[in-house]
Amino acid sequence: MGILIQEKSSTWIISPTGVEISRCVLDYSVTLETNENSDSSCTIIRIESDFTIIRDSQSRTVEIENVGSVGQAAVFLRKELTSGYVSTDGKLELRFSDNVSLIVDSNNSYEAWSVLTKDGERLICMPGGEVAYWSPERKKP
Known about the structure:
Blueprint: E1 2-8, E2 11-17, E3 19-26, E4 30-34, E5 44-47, E6 51-55, E7 58-62, H1 67-70, E8 80-86, E9 92-96, E10 100-104, E11 113-116, E12 122-125, E13 131-134
Antiparallel strand pairs: 1-2, 2-8, 3-4, 3-8, 4-5, 5-11, 6-7, 6-10, 8-9, 9-10, 11-12, 12-13
């Protein structure tokens, strides 16, 4: 179980295996956490910009600064993350079980989203849409 991040022709592929959203935290952002194994490590997906939820071909915009709106993110709880993709302009697309998708466009002023895997890989949409990647720190033997 886990998430693998791969670069492919200036885009990024997010490949999950057996990953379910187990926690949804709402504050000045939306944070989705996974339940990848029995220890306390998990993948964290943080959304800091308006986003779109698509369910059964119907789309809804979620305004990150609207408390009544962000509650819609609860739709991802207990859903399996099935695939993910990041385009060259920084748009994040995540697909979940039950025909539910999440789309976050880049933002010109601040980081729109970030993904931190349990293994330490970090993928962040920087202001303006540039995507930054950090590989996990390797411990020296």
